[in-house]
């Protein structure tokens, strides 16, 4: 099934806590794009769940990305453990009493996505000082601490303003919505531009068909987005990549350096291109799909020069029977 732009992250908080590995497998079989892990310390929120060791134990159960949502008062104290445990993104709460920037930077330094979550009553402006360190803005539409609560429409509207907090990089960050997301609320949430919808009890409630709920939430959110944004270029989450060139190693590595200096992440790997005279298969260069316009606008001359140089090299290789 072709994936649209909306991603579903399954929260296992309301699954069978006596068998989390089974819950993760169920979520994966249901077609969830990510696993959302609600970590609670009984202090920041009036509930306790699990820690990094549980996350580490679950890491081997699935290859799906792990989105950790730390509802804890001292994220700086535990962030390394969650990095070590294999989380792909770590979202902490902006309301904690300690500085948040160092923790966000630690997450980024480990090559993971760094996020800030907002309680329903917390204004979006609280995130302004951290723009440079943000990959994810998580808008909570229930009071953190428990699954199965009713969706709060008013706080969801922060999404409309939140995009500008994460779109200052060539590839866009992600807007997450967490709490009370289900088939009734998904279309409205999609119309606000959310990229990742966290779904918990709607998947695991007795009698639910998790695959059907996942499909309904995703398709209704896509519909809500398409209708509200009327064909504007959808902000793509940062984990969609597109190939922009296939080049011999020499030309490719030069281009990679230029793009990375411009803050555009590049994946540079041998693809299915031709094999050069040096016996090395040519490399594919991939960038986040939302960065493609920036690459084609800002780096067109460098891209054309690399392609021209590659064509000359291929001709020379063919000439000497390479
Ligand atoms: C609440 C958690 C949410 C919650 C979502 O504090 O952060 O992730 O588990 O569950 P539902 O979808 O049931 O609101
Ligand atoms: Zn959560």
Quick overview of this protein structure:
The protein is of the alpha/beta class. The chain is built from 12 helices and 11 strands.
Q: CATH superfamily of the largest domain, please? A: Aldolase class I
Q: Mean of the pLDDT scores?
A: 90
Helix content: 25-40%
**Could you say which small molecules are bound to this protein?**
D-xylitol-5-phosphate, zinc ion
Structural class: alpha/beta
DSSP, total strands: 11
Low-confidence stretches: none
Number of domains: 2
> Any idea what the CATH architecture of the largest domain is?
Alpha-Beta Barrel
Radius of gyration: 21 Å
Strand content: 15-25%
N-to-C span = 41 Å
**CATH classification class of the largest domain:** Alpha Beta
- If strands are numbered along the chain, what order do they take across the biggest sheet? 1-2-3-4-5-6-7-8
Largest sheet: 8 strands, parallel, barrel
CATH fold node name of the largest domain: TIM Barrel
Q: In DSSP terms, counting alpha (H) and pi (I) runs of 4 or more, how many helices?
A: 12
Principal-axes geometry comes out as: elongated
Q: Name the helix and strand elements from N-terminus to C-terminus, one letter apiece.
A: EHEHEHEHEEHHEHEHHEHEEHH
